[in-house]
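ping. complex inputs:
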Amino acid sequence: MAFWKRNLAALLLLLLAIVLIAAGILTGEAEIVFRKAVNICMECIGLG
Amino acid sequence: MGKLWLSVRRHLRTWVQLCFTALTNGYLMGFVKGKIWKGQTKALCVPGLNCYSCPGALGSCPIGSLQAVLASRDHKVSFYVVGFLLLTGAVFGRFVCGWLCPFGLLQDLLYKIPFVKKLRRLPGDRWLKYLKYVILTGFVIILPLTVLDIVGQGQPWFCKYICPSGTLFAGIPLIASNPLLRSALGWLFAWKTVVLVALLFLSVLVYRPFCRYLCPLGAVYGLFNPIAFYRFKIDEGKCTKCGLCQKACKLDIPVYRKPNSPECIRCGDCKKACPHGAVCSSLSKKRPSAPVDDRTKEKGEETPHAD
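pong. complex structure:
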């Protein structure tokens, strides 16, 4: 219990993070990340 | 086997960095074929700055992913990547920079190269350390969101014009093994190579120049240092404010005053250097000790200077 009290801010952020990730998956953001990541990123490698 | 174990214990951080880099960049055929991994794991972000176009990369770079979503036509906020950054930041803070980032590992190794004169910090460090926040807001968020082409799509400005990790771990291996890409080389690649070479040279001279002054991911994680599950604390009962922790810190942080500085990458050198064991992590189970004044009186020691 003391551990969670000491780390209340981190715990709340952790819960918020989980909600945001779930929201991101539902709104199709994970798909955008996937599509970008499975094609060579020309900007990243310095070609365009 | 015993020697190996001893070496692992003595250089634990380097081993963790090496293993994590190998684990998250394990698609070795990519380097041979000049292609990238296309599996489902690419939908997940890795904690460190690890370009998703690196032939070996099994996951996605959070900074690249953030720009990809912000620059897309349909999304102007990224819940997914922000959620991931919150998750990693809340648990680790900048521990990621010190232990899990491939570009951090490279800078660590370069700093081990002997040089005529090593610098504690670059001139203008006091102001330069804020540059990473400018890069985060400007190149990672505002420019990809606002500078759009005719179909409403932005660009990953940080990846395109700054990121040395992309040039080194993705650009060079892909261009070396793919003749088609080689034929498309131009001024942008030349610019990114100049940035990369300058940073590699600086890394020999000064400890982790990219992390200190330029890395937007470090800027984000640094904000979590004071509240993350993994953070440092000073046992006031043991600390004599002798400053040995700052002397041992290659980032020149006065740990005894600011144990959770946003610049701290949690390398742990200060913990090893403290002769009183006053620097400990939030996860350690050490009990607070008696006030240092009492102990020094008992031993007849002089009370060391405050800063």
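The two ends of chain B are 45 Å apart (CA to CA).
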